[in-house]
Specification:
With 155 residues, this protein is mainly alpha-helical. It has one domain: dinb family like domain (Four Helix Bundle (Hemerythrin (Met), subunit A)), CATH 1.20.120.450. 67% of the residues lie in helices and 4% in strands. The chain has a two-stranded antiparallel ribbon. Strand 1 and strand 2 form a beta hairpin. Helix 3 packs parallel to helix 4 and helix 3 runs antiparallel to helix 5. The longest helix is centred in the last third of the chain and has 25 residues. It is globular, with a radius of gyration of 15 Å.
């Protein structure tokens, strides 16, 4: 592993994995529900609806892509791809993008429940394209953090 990869993985451990471990899966389900509601409220109040549409489309794509990685913990095959093909249609209105993101977030929370029932070992990992191997809770932290940060761009 080169210096760049080592640095990125170290930052991911500090910013993603450590905070991810601070919550149980139950707590992650609750946190994702709350942040999803906050993101939707932010989108509904956006002064730039076109910008909010684009950001929500991006967020949905990232989260759906992340769901495919979370399903690997449940036995699905690993697919090395990017998030682009997971985005909902770019022609959706802001309300359509809000609905797509809401449905996507509900699916993520459902996956959390499935992962909880499957008793996935805490040290099991699945590769993130940039951050390297992440645990279930690391993935949940990443998805939550990414969507929340991106949603600040609605304004």
């Amino acid at each position: 592993m080169g210096i760049k990869d080592t640095l990125v993985h170290t930052v991911a451990d500090i910013v993603v994995e450590r905070p991810g471990r601070a919550k149980t899966l139950d707590q992650w389900a609750t946190a994702l529900e709350k942040s999803g509601q906050a993101i939707d409220q932010r989108a509904a109040a956006a002064k730039n609806p076109e910008r909010a549409q684009a950001v929500l489309c991006h967020n949905s794509g990232i989260e759906r892509w992340g769901q495919t990685r979370l399903r690997v913990f449940l036995g699905a095959p690993v697919v090395r791809d990017e998030y682009d093909s997971y985005q909902p249609g770019t022609d959706l209105s802001l309300d359509g993008q809000r609905a797509a993101f809401g449905e996507t977030r509900r699916e993520t929370i459902d996956l959390v429940r499935q992962l909880q029932q499957a008793n996935v070992p805490d040290d099991a990992t699945v590769m993130h394209n940039d951050f390297g191997p992440l645990t279930v809770r690391g993935w949940l932290r990443y998805l939550d953090m990414h969507a929340t940060i991106e949603s600040k761009k609605f304004w």
